[in-house]
Design a protein that fits this description.
Layout: H1 2-10, H2 19-27, H3 29-32, H4 44-53, H5 66-71, H6 73-80, H7 86-96, H8 98-101, H9 103-117, H10 120-129, H11 131-150, H12 155-167
Helix pairs in contact: 1-2, 6-7, 10-11
């Protein structure tokens, strides 16, 4: 709360009704990781304070959704340039990044990233020595194939399309 107050004071925000916006901002870990997505020369704290002063964030709890907008290039640009309101920018970002709106898709994306970033030789050694680890990966593979089929995704067709696009 002290950080929120200091941020308000340093950016000359005097409306006490805006304090909760700054509290949400100060406690957000997601916002602290978002600076890399902002255009060069824009300080997150300055831009946030400007958005609050201009009443561009509809409610204090909407501050929690600001990272979703700022991560998406198109939504970020349109929102920061003032071409679309907050809620419209949020919907745009969620459409392009379903993992931002759904814990199910978020978990799938995190699992995919974990597998993509895994050190294959280390995992190969681990599964050769530990049957439980081997079972987890085998079960994941079987479940993913079964689930894809159940929701109408033909894995073999996807694989063929990937191979044919690589051949071009």
């Amino acid at each position: 709360m002290i950080e929120a107050y200091q941020l308000m004071e340093s950016h000359s925000v005097t409306d006490p009704n805006r304090f909760s916006y700054f509290v949400e901002f100060a406690k957000s870990r997601k916002l602290s990781d978002i600076k890399e997505y902002l255009p060069t020369g824009i300080a997150l704290e300055d831009k946030f304070s400007e958005l609050v002063k201009e009443d561009r964030i509809p409610r204090a709890d909407a501050v929690r959704d600001l990272p979703t907008i700022l991560r998406d290039k198109s939504a970020r640009k349109k929102f920061l340039d003032g071409h679309v309101p907050f809620d419209e920018a949020l919907e745009m970002a969620k459409e392009r990044h379903p993992e931002a709106a759904s814990s199910f898709y978020n978990k799938l994306k995190r699992a995919t990233e974990a597998m993509s970033n895994a050190e294959e030789s280390r995992v190969r050694d681990e599964v050769s020595q530990d049957q439980q680890k081997k079972y987890i990966i085998t079960d994941l593979y079987k479940t993913a194939r079964r689930f894809a089929k159940a929701v109408g995704i033909d894995i073999q067709q996807v694989d063929r399309k990937k191979r044919s696009s690589k051949d071009r």
